[in-house]
Structure prediction request, 312 residues.
Amino acid sequence: MKKMSIVLVGLLSSLLVLGACSDKEKSEAGTDGKIDVVTTIAQIAEPISIIGGDHVAVESLMGPGVDPHLYKATQGDIKKLEGSDIVFYSGLNLEGNMTEAFKNIGTKKPVRGISESIPTEKLLEDDNGAIDPHVWFDIELWKIALETATEELKAFAPELADEFEANKESYFNELDALHTESLEKLTQIPEDKRVLVTAHDAFGYFGRAYNIKVVGLQGLSTEDEIGITDIDDTISILMEYKIPAVFVESSINQNSIKAVIEGAGKQGLDVKLGGELYSDAMGDAGTEEGTYIGMYKHNVNTIHKALLGEGN
Ligand SMILES: [Zn+2]
Prediction:
């Protein structure tokens, strides 16, 4: 009986909250009056939860430590995609194993590869002509992608367009400040020490934005093989520039980077592990690194500290 009354109080208070909602919200889709957005990576989900505010319920399929290059949609994911109102993925072949799922769901609802709206001339390519999909590491480019997502939200709920636009404007101001702050920090590193060695080629745009030479042991996708020559070539670069630190990535096995540290040590160069960077996944939800801005700051601070030789 006691339990019953608690449930009743809970129900009553939810009803009160519902009653307080404006007419606007009643016209939105979804049973809870919110627009249900499903994304692949959290780098999209978290900013969209800010831009959409109270009017959207956002869920990302890939959590912390998950590698999007290798990710395959589960049955549960397909259900979530089917139950959503809008789907945002990054695109440019980042989520290469999900193409079929996007195509199927795309016949029923808006499914948008938001990075694919970035003008081609702003994108980087590898030696084989493959486009680099890690565009979230160039704030200017990521703003273009988030703008595309915002336009999609506005088209879905035109009555909320002004609100989405205002949220986006204030979030973009924060992103601009983040870029200025990052530039200021990273340019403190002497130019000949600005070499970023990581497990795979996720930091090409980041390197371009902040004038840092980037070396990835694996190519643009983690599906590429790592060869012994890649490790040897990387050690040569470290020796040449006397680079103090290399970095592991939260979504990638650490063995190849450890092999580099060991190999450099055998040749007399003491290379430290500079720390863990977030590349293709963000930190735990509810922590600072679980936000796009927090994850970005973590990377900038980690690189700054390690390459200035203040290692950990
Ligand atoms: Zn990647």
Q: What stands out?
A: The pocket of zinc ion is lined by residues 69, 134, 200, 202, 279-280 (CB under 6 Å). Residues 161-186 form the longest helix (26 residues). The beta strands are 35-39, 56-60, 86-89, 111-113, 195-200, 213-218, 245-249, 272-277.
